[in-house]
Design brief:
The structure is a single chain. 43% of the residues lie in helices and 13% in strands. It contains 8 helices and 6 strands; from the N terminus they run H-E-E-H-H-E-H-E-H-H-E-E-H-H. The two termini are 28 Å apart. The chain binds uracil. Uracil binds next to loops.
Length: 188
Amino acid sequence: MDFEALKQECLVCRRCGLCETRTNVVFGMGSPTAEVMFIGEGPGRNEDEQGLPFVGRSGKLLDQYLEAVDLSRDKNVFIGNIVKCRPPENRDPLPEEWDACLPWLREQFKFIRPKIVVCLGRIAAQRLIRPDFSVTKEHGQFEEKNGVLFTATLHPAALLRNPTQKPLAFADYVALREKILEVCDHTY
Ligand code: URA
């Protein structure tokens, strides 16, 4: 199966109850050969309506950080989410919804084979790095798991709520740029 076939299968997923209330599955977007993947928590209202990740206010902020370090969702990164359908009223996904959805992310990892995974916010970091990961204390640090470098930064929605933390996040993107120059072949 190729990446497009995986996407088409995912777009009609009925593995959990969220398929009853979603408008669109948000598969993710970007380059299927990206060396860097950004992973958020799950779609909100705008993402559900458009079927694309990070397209609301927090997505605009994310795009600004990406642009500042010469990254772009249209060019050299892939942006996805742990859960691919919006829970009703933006409630937290249930454990069975996480579990039903995670295999899609695993398939995406298998195809893309990123060198660096950037978790956006606590939920993604605790799922993908460590259950006790503290974004406040450990953002911007890299840790290797099975040959892939994982890092986390503050979620752009949290930065909109708390703009004084924006310089901390900016430093993470600058550190990411350095790491990309060190370990990636074709991102820049
Ligand atoms: N927040 C997320 O975690 N993911 C999105 O796609 C949008 C907002």
